[in-house]
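Practice record 12: protein with prephenic acid.
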Amino acid sequence: MEAVNNFELSAMDRWEIGNSSPLIIAGPCSVETPQQLDETVRGLVANGVKVIRGGVWKPRTRPNSFEGVGHIALPWIKEIKEKYQVKFAIEVASPYHVEKAFEFGIDLFWIGARTSVNPFAVQEIADSLKGVDIPVLVKNPVNPDLALWIGALERINQAGIKKLGAIHRGFSNFNDQVYRNSPTWQIPLELKTRYPNLPILNDPSHICGRRDLLNSVAQMAMDLNFDGLIIESHVNPDQAWSDAAQQVTPEVLGKMIAGLHIRKVAIENPVFQSQLDQIREQIDQVDRELLEVISRRVRLVEKAGEYKKLNNVAIFQIERWKKVFESRPEWGKALQLNHEFVKELYQLIHTESIKKQEEIMEQKMSEEEK
Ligand SMILES: O=C(O)C(=O)C[C@]1(C(=O)O)C=C[C@@H](O)C=C1
């Protein structure tokens, strides 16, 4: 696919919010009290964090949950910013939030997943941002809809915001057994492919929903070359007023960040490059063979389709399909192929078989109509 880049962007190192690479933004899910904020920020600064996050207004799924202390947190934040010389990021969900945040010198805004899902709300925020020069990060909408995410980014960009970035916080799901929000990595990777200059941060806290998984998701983001992380940290996580299970102390966070392997996009080393090129040539060859084999299978499926057409037999053959669908992942196991991967592959293959045979049946019908 051809890469397009119609966002007008300024490079992240010109955002003036702490030039660390990757960019680390950390802080409590919610700002609770002046003391909690002070102790948390003190710990984070001691662990090298320069950009703090903190929820002031919290959109919650259920009523009667803690919805943030609201605008009274803003003077506390202003004081903390001066005391520790840090930058501060908050979520904004309305023009009122934007206006209040400006009044108290907030350095960076993010638009939450429950807001980015709603073009009316995003447009109102975009209109209130006209004429200002502040970094704005747009979280993915709760549902796995790349076009909606891009639409929200475009609205903010068209308001004149050039310090624009995205946050991957995972997607709502009905039955993910592991994550609070499924990472579905192919969506942010597709965003990066289409907009290579758009910085994307990963939010392991909201993907995991529990602290024991944070490290593996943060490392995955680094392996995939994300531009930074936004992580929740609280001086006393178990007592947090919101999202207690996914927060870690500043010390734990500091250790985690220090332990991350930061990958390079590429290296200049000619030996590495020539070896990688050789492996890639072999991959090209295998892909040709793979497509030839797939093409042979599709031709056979067409033959079966013609045969079904002649004998007026239905396309979908449930008993046969069950056998195929159960046996192939088993065959794959013997070849060290992941069970889920083979299942998904065969679902795609079967969808294509149905499509091909449907085309053959339709041909028959139009021939009969003649
Ligand atoms: O076995 C058949 O009847 C086929 O047409 C092949 C095939 C397949 O792709 O494997 C396609 C459609 C059927 O539902 C079952 C299996």
